[in-house]
Amino acid sequence: MQKGQKISVVCIGAGPAGLTAAYILGKNNVKVTVLEKNPVYVGGISRTEIYKGFAFDIGGHRFFSKSQEIETLWKELLGEALLLRSRKSRILYKRKFFDYPLRAGNALRQLGIIETLRCIISYIHVRLYPNRNPQNFQDWVTNHFGKRLYTIFFRSYTEKVWGVPCTQISADWAAQRIKGLSLSKAIWNALWFKKQKQNSKNVIKTLIGSFHYPRRGPGMLWEKTKDRIKQQGNEVLLGMNVVEINLLKDKTWQIITEDPTQKRHEFFADHVISSMPIRELGEILKPTLPKVAKIAAASLQYRDFLTVALITKGKSLFDDNWIYIHDPSVQVGRIQNFKSWSPEMVPDLAYNCYGLEYFCFETDKIWSMPNDELIHMAINEMTQIGLIVPSDVVDGVVIRQPKAYPVYDDHYDTNVKTLQNVLENDYAGLHLVGRNGMHKYNNQDHAMMTAILTVKNILAGYQKYDVWTVNEDAEYHEEDKITSSKDI
Length: 488
Known about the structure:
Blueprint: E1 8-12, H1 16-27, E2 31-35, E3 48-51, E4 54-57, H2 68-78, E5 82-86, E6 89-93, E7 96-100, H3 104-111, H4 113-128, H5 137-145, H6 147-162, H7 171-177, H8 183-191, E8 210-214, H9 219-231, E9 235-237, E10 241-247, E11 253-258, E12 264-269, E13 271-274, H10 278-284, E14 285-286, H11 291-299, E15 302-313, E16 322-325, E17 334-337, H12 338-341, E18 351-360, H13 365-368, H14 371-384, E19 393-406, H15 412-426, E20 430-432, H16 435-438, H17 444-460
Parallel strand pairs: 1-2, 1-13, 2-9, 6-16, 10-14, 13-20
Antiparallel strand pairs: 3-4, 5-8, 6-7, 10-11, 11-12, 15-18, 15-19, 16-17, 17-18
């Protein structure tokens, strides 16, 4: 951007990426309008839902980042409302709790000596005879942990999350989500456990012992960000469903939305920052995408997600932040204990609020089940695995989240790269950010970093940073061009 030149930006989506972009742009005196489909909440899947004073996340969000820039931004926006919390999470397998991450003594006691020895032998075997070309999730995890540990601690939960066998899930997903963690490192951590320093460059995300968390959930951050954007003189408009995105002849953009009354609104901007799902973007973009790109966009898949929040009275039977349920006899995949995230998530400490997470597709039966049936099923499943007494349940609510997870199937990478090339070459001024905007399984801090780097590119007037290299455990180097490395 040339000195003195005024630009305008529309951000599609008021999740972590869209709101971060708008806030940073506002700091640089850029005119910004944020358009959000949700009529009530900002924050996307990082929002905090409220029900009768009880607050709960859509999936649970730890605030931890290797980027000092992100950590500083969180503290700038939240100040003392950003609490430091101890992490506790476990795996429930065969009605026994296993510490997560792995602790050697705990695993030995719970698995028993014979099964532990089998796991060690299985691990040694793959170290001696590794699969040189892992093709899928099962291959990758077995290569790193051995077949027995893969079967016990990875297969059941992963197949619940994605709804397909592990042999049909890309090895890229395992490499991204389990990056930097090996069995030997986990055992070393178990034997020589010390609290990790959050600013350590060598800390493995999976092993961190504490994290920051807003006292009333992650949505508190995004509500504060929305307020700051408005204070800057810019707009965050809720209930705005984007139905058309048109690149005009003068290379500016026209964005058309529909509000809850079906009334249409027009917005114009020099740049569009989009965090909406790429598949939906491909359907409304004009000029129409070339056929190959349109097919690529339509081929991208998403996994959906619903939370059944149960409110109970009395003492909690567990104090974990969350528990992974590795039990194929129940459909629930993970259970959040929101009072353990922050006591202020419940209005009365005599009560508890648990979030039972079910992973599904919108076409699955469970997605369209009536809420009372889902609550009844959740009570039965939580009773079956021994975590509540049914008579303690006083209320429940269901929250559905479509397109919670971009699916890493065999062709996703080719499809995304096809779209990336077409959009960068033919749709100048359109910038993809965030989890669904880039079809990348990013965490909240990674989504924020894609927005920050995109804003830097817009302000610079050229592609100074490669936003697509931001992924799991990135350290986000401040360089003119971010290049691929083991840290990015």
